[in-house]
Design a protein that fits this description.
single chain, about 300 residues, Rossmann fold, nine-stranded mixed β-sheet, about 30% strand
Length: about 300
């Protein structure tokens, strides 16, 4: 394992890690003391989960180890161990699996850490465009990242992809700067960026990564986290003829949408009353609308126009 450590900023935290974190803002090694330290241990350090809290056969399994640490594991391939104080994450895996670790860590690994540190996280992409910032939520395959890529191609700025870390500052909700890499299927990349555009493929998840800050290292770091103005829940409806956007949902309906989008996906067993109160506050203060459309590429410009109007 290389002794070189990397310092980066992601979701409002400064992290020190033994490998670069994809989509994070790279910092000088002497910039500041880290909030969280990421370290690696070989597979011989695998922790046994004694108290399983969730996880199905084809999903990550998570729970607590004997020392009180929180663990999440993927079919004995990679395990993340979060210490009880939430300032250390240990990546446990064979050296051969280290290439997968950073991509998974900036997603579900950071989602669990942020949840344990009291931050409300949603599964979606966040875009700033035309003076507004909004989150795009929806089930897997609803087109969140594809829609975000189309908005960035129209001049928008990606605040975060896959995970939206939302905080209340006493006056308004804001979104922490997250992963700046958009995860795209090849067909989406071809339609939005062109077939000639070459992108690397993310290990394990099999999607292409578009670094939206390419050529602008550190972009956005000195800016304040943007105020969240709206939330759109995306849904594909095969029979729809065009784009439909609902009026803002009543708080009770909005809360159902937000609970469905809570991150990490598939781990609602971890939802606490405190987090439910956070979701209720968000549903009461931020307009949440549903956007439905057919899965056709010719409709994509219409959806983009509806979102930025």
């Amino acid at each position: 394992m290389s002794p070189v450590n990397h310092l980066s900023r992601l979701y409002g935290l400064i992290l020190e890690s033994p490998f670069p974190l994809p989509g994070a803002i790279t910092l000088a090694s002497n910039f500041a003391e880290p909030d969280v330290i990421v370290r690696w241990e070989p597979e011989t350090a695998w922790r046994e989960i004694l108290h399983t809290l969730g996880g199905q056969e084809d999903c990550p399994r998570f729970g607590k180890a004997s020392d009180g640490s929180f663990c999440i594991e993927f079919k004995r391939a990679i395990q993340f161990v979060i210490c009880p104080e939430n300032h250390f994450i240990t990546v446990v895996c064979p050296v051969s699996n280290l290439e997968f670790a950073p991509t998974v860590l900036v997603g579900i690994g950071m989602g669990l850490l942020l949840h344990r540190r009291g931050v409300l996280c949603l599964h979606g992409s966040v875009i700033s465009i035309n003076g507004r910032t909004f989150a795009l939520l929806g089930e897997s395959g609803a087109g969140k990242s594809t829609m975000a890529a189309a908005l960035v191609a129209r001049g928008g700025k990606l605040v975060s992809d896959d995970l939206a870390a939302v905080r209340w500052n006493g006056e308004f909700y804001h979104v922490e700067k997250g992963c700046a890499n958009l995860r795209l299927e090849e067909t989406a990349k071809n339609h939005i960026l062109g077939r000639d555009r070459e992108l690397m493929t993310a290990p394990w998840i099999g999607k292409m990564l578009w670094d939206t800050t390419a050529g602008n290292p550190g972009e956005g770091f000195l800016e304040s986290p943007p105020k969240l103005d709206a939330i759109y829940s995306l849904g594909v409806q095969a029979e729809a003829e065009g784009v439909r956007m609902s009026a803002p949902l009543a708080p009770k309906q909005a809360m159902r949408e937000l609970i469905g989008a809570w991150y990490p996906q598939g781990s609602t067993q971890l939802l606490t009353q405190e987090r439910l109160n956070d979701i209720l506050g968000l549903a009461q203060r931020i307009p949440v609308a549903k956007v439905s459309y057919p899965r056709r590429w010719d409709v994509l410009p219409q959806v983009v126009a509806a979102l930025i109007q």
